[in-house]
Design brief:
The protein is an alpha/beta fold and 245 residues long. The protein contains eight helices and six strands.
């Protein structure tokens, strides 16, 4: 039997590093969803598949417009989702039921299960089914992608603009039949007369109508080009919070 020399310290160190990498890499991949290392989905197998499809559609949409990102996102499917109304104190019960929400500080989306019955307000009067839930999920993913693209500048974008852009891309991604169904309910809506109308008062008066107006404005502004101008603050904007401080 041939005698092999004892491994050097450098060889031992290399073996330890390789062993550690083999242990760490599979565990990281085990928690990666949708093929993205920083994406997590908490839900059923069908909900995970739906999330991955929605994420792929949204990322492809932005990539086609020259805005590619590697997403950081946690998506949680829940039987009920509540958000605190803007300006309400943290110790108050100023919470309202919603179909989905995105929290930028934690890169987290919470969304209702598609099987949930009573969801409170029904956007555009649509029944809460798999198609509606999927579209709402895409809306929240759009929020997340724009937040990641903008980075620290995201907080400077007025709240109504967050919603306007998310609604616009949501409509662009809707199946044609669903989009036509919603738009048919607002046949006279051609979009905002100017971008200063994209504000919290107009949004708060009728979010459903605001969404349609935002989409029509987005279309007339050449879609993704309009979005790029908005996130670079190249359009006229007003943030009503500035007048309340």
């Amino acid at each position: 039997m041939r005698h092999r020399p004892a491994p050097s310290r450098r060889q031992i160190a290399a073996l330890l590093i390789m062993s550690g990498a083999l242990l760490i890499a599979p565990s990281r991949l085990a928690f990666a969803d949708c093929g993205h290392i920083a994406v997590r989905v908490t839900g059923t197998a069908d909900e995970t598949i739906s999330t991955c499809r929605a994420l792929d559609e949204v990322l492809s949409y932005f990539e086609a417009g020259g805005l590619a990102v590697e997403p950081r996102l946690t998506v949680r499917f829940e039987p009920s989702v509540f958000v605190r109304t803007r300006g309400s104190p943290t110790n108050a019960t100023g919470e309202v039921p919603v179909s989905g929400s995105y929290e930028g500080s934690t890169d987290e989306i919470r969304i209702l299960n598609a099987a949930t019955g009573d969801i409170g307000r029904r956007a555009w009067g649509l029944r809460w089914d798999a198609a509606t839930a999927f579209s709402v999920l895409e809306h929240e993913i759009v929020h997340a992608v724009i937040a990641q693209i903008m980075g620290e500048r995201y907080e400077k974008l007025p709240h109504a603009w967050h919603e306007a852009l998310a609604y616009a891309v949501q409509f662009d991604l809707m199946p044609t039949r669903l989009r036509d169904d919603v738009l048919a309910r607002y046949p006279a809506e051609e979009g905002f007369a100017n971008t200063l109308q994209i504000n919290d008062i107009v949004y708060g008066l009728d979010p459903d109508h605001f969404a349609v107006a935002a989409y029509q404005t987005y279309r007339s502004g050449h879609g993704i080009d309009f979005l790029k101008k908005a996130i670079h603050f190249e359009l006229e904007m007003i943030d009503l919070n500035d007048f309340l401080q």
